[in-house]
């Protein structure tokens, strides 16, 4: 499969402890438990928007009759198998020329430090390089976001550089760029 084959139907991925699947309207109450938490946005580059403060708004379509183009982004809810709750989200976005894409993730604070983000990201890396033609995954991380740096490094990402007082999302901060190449993944 190539990325464009996933334009309409996004895959469901599985790990030992997690299911990664599209988020649906049935997940609103799970999202409400953690998505508005201001602590999630400390290093997110912006504060929570209205859809994050009130997750049900995500499913309100203000113009339901407009036919929209399918969204190429991959947005998976991270479902914990032990309780079947959506405890986080992980994304592959900004896909450029089917070649390079950005990863991002966030998990409910209640579940931090249990290895779940690392498990989800490893799965997304495997999917990206084994099931699509992506050549590079990358992300930017506020230098103070030690947990996120650690997650990336555990998944094989390399710190490629640091931008001083650059614009990350809507804020200005020192941030690292991390990248993982297909060649790194296959040990070439
Ligand atoms: C970043 C985030 C997703 C990490 O999630 P998580 O599920 O706790 O990640 P994991 O448990 O897989 O791994 C976290 C690692 O960071 C380490 N860590 C966390 N805080 C740390 C600190 N202050 N100092 C050193 N290590 C730290 C943990 O010990 C763990 O490493 P280990 O397995 O070697 O012990 C979570 O903190 C989050 O959602 N933050 C808010 C959103 C966000 O910042 N997203 C990333 C944007 S780039």
Helices and strands in order:
Elements: E1 13-14, E2 18-21, H1 28-34, H2 50-53, E3 74-80, E4 85-96, E5 100-107, H3 116-131, E6 136-142, H4 146-154, E7 158-168, E8 171-181, H5 182-185
Parallel strand pairs: 5-6
Antiparallel strand pairs: 1-2, 2-3, 3-4, 4-5, 6-8, 7-8
Residues 40, 43-44, 104-107, 112-118, 139, 141, 145-148, 150-151 line the site of coenzyme A (COA).
End-to-end gap: 22 Å
Low-confidence stretches: none
What is the radius of gyration computed over CA atoms, rounded to a whole number of angstroms? 16 Å
Tell me the number of strands.
8
Q: Give the CATH H-level superfamily.
A: Gcn5-related N-acetyltransferase (GNAT)
Major sheet: size, sense and barrel closure?
A: 8 strands, mixed
Overall 3D geometry? globular
Write the CATH architecture name. Answer: 3-Layer(aba) Sandwich
């Amino acid at each position: 499969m190539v990325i464009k084959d996933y334009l309409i139907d996004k895959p469901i991925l599985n790990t030992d402890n997690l299911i990664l699947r599209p988020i649906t309207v049935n997940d609103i109450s799970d999202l409400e438990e953690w998505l508005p938490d201001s602590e999630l946005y400390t290093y997110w580059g912006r504060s929570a928007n209205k859809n994050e403060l009130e997750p049900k708004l995500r499913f309100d379509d203000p113009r339901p009759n407009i036919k929209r183009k399918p969204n190429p982004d991959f947005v998976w809810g991270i479902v914990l198998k032990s309780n079947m709750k959506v405890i986080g989200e992980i994304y592959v976005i900004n896909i450029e020329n089917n070649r390079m894409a950005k990863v991002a993730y966030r998990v409910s604070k209640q579940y931090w430090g249990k290895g779940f983000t690392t498990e989800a990201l490893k799965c997304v890396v495997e999917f990206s390089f084994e099931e699509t033609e992506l050549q590079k995954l990358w992300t930017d991380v506020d230098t103070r976001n030690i947990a996120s740096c650690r997650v990336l490094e555990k998944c094989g990402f390399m710190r490629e550089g640091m931008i001083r007082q650059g614009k990350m999302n809507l804020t200005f901060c020192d941030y690292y760029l991390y990248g993982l190449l297909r060649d790194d993944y296959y040990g070439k």
